[in-house]
Design brief:
It is a single chain. By secondary structure, this protein is an alpha/beta fold. The protein has a single domain, classed as Alpha-Beta Complex (Inosine-uridine Nucleoside N-ribohydrolase, Chain A). It is built from eleven helices and twelve strands. The strands form three sheets. An eight-stranded mixed beta sheet has the order 3-2-1-4-5-8-12-11, with helices on both faces. It has a two-stranded antiparallel sheet with strand order 6-7. It is globular.
């Protein structure tokens, strides 16, 4: 009996330890913007080593094809995804409805920004809050603007910018930084730890609609929804498209399939850029993980 009790306690402690080892994540996305966002979000929730604490909506208001309430549309879509995923412990939070202001109190005060502040302050000494941003950096930069003390308590992963490795030149005229120029400038002038995958490294992350439909349709209503979302999008007639945001999730999960380099040509000296991604492995792993999740739901 004593042996059984000892074994039970050892198992219980082991289980508790493994549960505590999950990386706590805040996921920030312009979900209603492009087809790739819902796929990346589902891939993030499919990762068993992650605990998604919050799924924030961010705006893409300055886009030429933006909807009148882009953040709210993203928030509603986050609610739809959460209903399929059964994410009862994940907060679904509204972010800023537009880009940061140009002067004065530049922050967009929102539930998302204040939750980032709250969670950052809960980090133990030497630990950092992991934030994954798939769109404009409005919510993250607003949190830093409101409370600069959290700068050293955040580890930010983001898709955006273009980078010329030969000349060591960064440009910020691609979609995500253009949605909030003040936000990216604020963060690149801060001391926030930033891990960035430039869009110039992701141009070959192409997936075919026919293959996506074959893999996901009929597995679960969520799989059907992802396929239908591709089909119903404004440019849904495309057979092939770049699934940009998936690359960031996969780079985080599989550093062996990508190269990460610390760069020093920003005022922020804590910036790391991803390069040389393995597009084929990224896509294969992403869809395999989503299929496994659909089979478990």
């Amino acid at each position: 009996m004593r042996v059984l009790i000892t074994l039970f306690l050892a198992f219980a402690l082991s289980f508790k330890g493994s549960a505590q080892e999950k990386t706590k994540i805040i996921l920030d996305a312009d979900t209603a913007n492009e087809v790739d966002d819902p796929f990346a979000i589902v891939r993030a929730f499919a990762e068993p080593t992650w605990e998604i604490q919050a799924l924030n909506a961010t705006q893409w208001q300055t886009s030429q094809w933006s909807t009148p309430r882009s953040m709210e549309d993203g928030h509603r879509l986050n609610q739809v995804l959460a209903s399929y995923l059964g994410t009862e412990n994940t907060k679904l939070l509204r972010g800023g409805h537009r880009r940061m202001y140009d002067w004065g109190d530049m922050a967009l005060h929102s539930a998302a920004a204040y939750n980032i502040i709250e969670q950052a302050h809960l980090q133990e000494e030497g630990e950092k809050l992991t934030v994954i941003a798939l769109g404009a950096l409005t919510n993250v930069a607003s949190a830093i603007f409101i409370d600069p003390e959290i700068s050293n308590k955040i580890k930010l992963y983001w898709l955006g910018t273009k980078y010329d490795w030969g000349n060591k030149v960064s440009t910020r005229t691609d979609f995500n930084p253009m949605m909030d120029p003040q936000a990216i400038e604020l963060l690149l002038s801060s001391n926030v730890e930033m891990h960035i995958i430039p869009v110039s490294e992701v141009n070959q992350m192409k997936s075919k609609f026919s293959e996506t439909k074959r893999l996901l349709q009929g597995k679960h209503p969520l799989g059907d929804y992802l396929v239908q979302h591709w089909f119903d999008h404004d440019d849904g007639g495309r057979e092939e498209r770049v699934l940009w945001d998936i690359a960031l999730i996969e780079a985080m999960l599989h550093p062996e399939w990508v190269t990460e380099v610390k760069v020093d040509n920003f005022k922020n000296k804590n910036v790391y850029l991803y390069k040389d991604i393995n597009e084929e492995k990224f896509l294969e792993d992403c869809f395999n993980a989503i299929v496994r999740l659909l089979e478990q739901l």
